[in-house]
Write the structure tokens for this entry.
Amino acid sequence: MNPEIRNNRKLFRSQYKSASNKSSHRRRVLSSKRYSSSSKGKDVFWPSVKGRDVDGKEEEEEEDDDEDDEDEDEIQNVFDSILKIHCTHSEPDFLIPWQRQHQSTSTSSGFVIDISDEDSDVEERRIMTNAHSVDYGSIIQVQRRGYSEKYQATIEALANECDLAILNVQDEQFWDGLDSLEFGDLPKLQEEVEVLGYPTGGDSLSVTSGVVSRIEIQEYAQASSHLLAMQIDAAINAGNSGGPVVNEDMEIIGVAFEALEGAENIGYVVPVTVVQHFLEDIQRHGNYTGFCSLGITLNLLENTSFRKSLGMTEGQSGIQLKSINPTSPCREVLQKNDVILEVDNIELGNDGKIPFRLGERVSMACYLQTKFQGDCVSMKLLRDKKIIDNVQVPVGILQKKIPAHFQSQPPPYMVVAGLVFTTLSIPYLYASNAWEEYVSESVSYLLTESDKPLERESDQVIVLAQVLAHPKNLGYDKYGNLHLKKFNDQDVRSLQHLQTLLDQCQEEFISFEFAPGGHYVVLERATLQEVTKDVCNEHFISNESVLTNNKSCS
């Protein structure tokens, strides 16, 4: 991943600051309407409630205003369905995995949708927002437009890869008068859109306008995934996260989720196609499963000599298969050095892209991500300079060797005689400042592990995060950020595997081998339990391990 992009992409939930931190933003004074003598008899400084004047008397409405009023009612109904999300986040400390960080609070936006089947007569209203808006949320509250009361909400579905979440509110009173919003079609370039939400700088609903600048594959910062995204030039500020982006018919065409720091008027939107795939995934499987891929690496074939060496003719284009991940569902069908010419009768360019719309091209990955677990795509291949038509290639949801998240669960860990082991993850690398300009050799080594494919479904990269000092582990207490390779000369594949090896060990001494540097740690097996208990008690660690089953230190 490009560290420059990683540092510049910003997820826009709005963080509360203490009351003593006064805003440094300078505000422009906008000219307002001048007072007119025709306003006599009305309080021009306070709006009347719809349908009534300030004295509670019925207002007279002219017949030719009826149509305008109906349009205004529709717009107001849409605005009423835009909600403010209040969340208290209690995120774990990934370097000290038994602890939580200091609580933080944020505000973001959400909106009402209907998740019922098309054939169903019963509406099932839910709230859609961003995953990062409610990630590790201990308390989630939803506030309606124009109301002071907040209602407690729960997470029903969380999709970090596409940064979307579904919330539900049990209190039926909350839903009174709320309409679910309709989805529209994917907008064209230069089509005008509006971003609705509750950004920082005020408490009331905000509407900003812009146009669609481009639609292509982009990085989603929440889970370091790459999906189709829409770039717009409308302002997306802190607090806009999770708010709908609508077209001129007030139909949802996307969900605001991030912006590019240091650049003006560059905001990113989860496009309606990705949103609908997320909802369809839940309908099909009962829960969110993910986005499909082939699990392969590719060579682009933009060089003429390269193409000739593979036996490609003048009119052929495609991409070469460089390697196949061991866990890929297509490993029994595709072969190394295959040239993919077509996918479902769509020609591939030598740059790995396919036609999207008139004048637009996107990565082949965008098309594969429209499929679901168990689906197949039909491919036209060039293998050993011979054409093979209609090859049925399965796609699937692949597990990453280095997870980007733990689905709002605490990270797994294990304490062994003061040695703190945990799973290497993207949040762990973030906490270790792995993308800073200068990092230690051990952190740099761990960063390279994120580019390697997973060999087995249950594999994990186990890291020695730190050593909690004890008289029995002196000499090792400066070790940290090391990759655990072996236990008693056996390869360690996961924390669960390490636990099994420890339970089965009958030798007098145990040894751990680490990389980089080939460091060794040797301890007496007979003292492990006593040392572990002492360390846990000293550091107030209630569980010596958090795996599938917790073990108490007491």
Observations:
- The mean pLDDT is 88.
- The longest strand covers residues 206-220.
